[in-house]
Amino acid sequence: MKERDDSKPLSGIIQLDDVYWGGERRGGKRGRGSVNKVPFVAAVSLNEEGHPIAMNMNVVKGFRLTEISRWAKQHLQPRSLPGSTL
Fold it and tell me: In 3D, which of 63, 76, 86 has the Cα closest to residue 6?
C-alpha cells in the first residue's frame, strides 16, 4: 500500500505530523537531538467525512521550512487543505 500511495500526491484535506523514529542509546543525547533518531513526515488524506483515504510517510532531512516545502511540493497536490493536527 505504501508504495502505491507514495506514487501519487495526496490531495484534499491533509493531516500531517513530524515524527522522530528511534530510541535513546545508553549514554547518548536524549530527545530531538539524539543522533540515532530519524526524522520523517506522516501525512493522511481525508474525505469530506474525515475518513482516511490515502497515506504517505517519508524520511526527511529535518524539519526546517526548506525541507518541508520540498517534501510538500513532491507529495501534496496544489490547493490541498490543512486538516486538524494528528
Answer: 76
Cα 13–Cα 3–Cα 45 angle in degrees, nearest 5: 5
Cell representation of residue 62: 529535518
pLDDT value at residue 32? 62
Q: What is the pLDDT of residues 1-50, one digit of tens each?
A: 667 767 789 999 999 999 888 766 666 666 666 777 889 999 999 998 99
CA distance 74 to 49: 26
CA 17 – CA 20 distance, rounded (Å): 10
Is there a contact between 42 and 26 (Cβ–Cβ < 8 Å)?
Answer: no
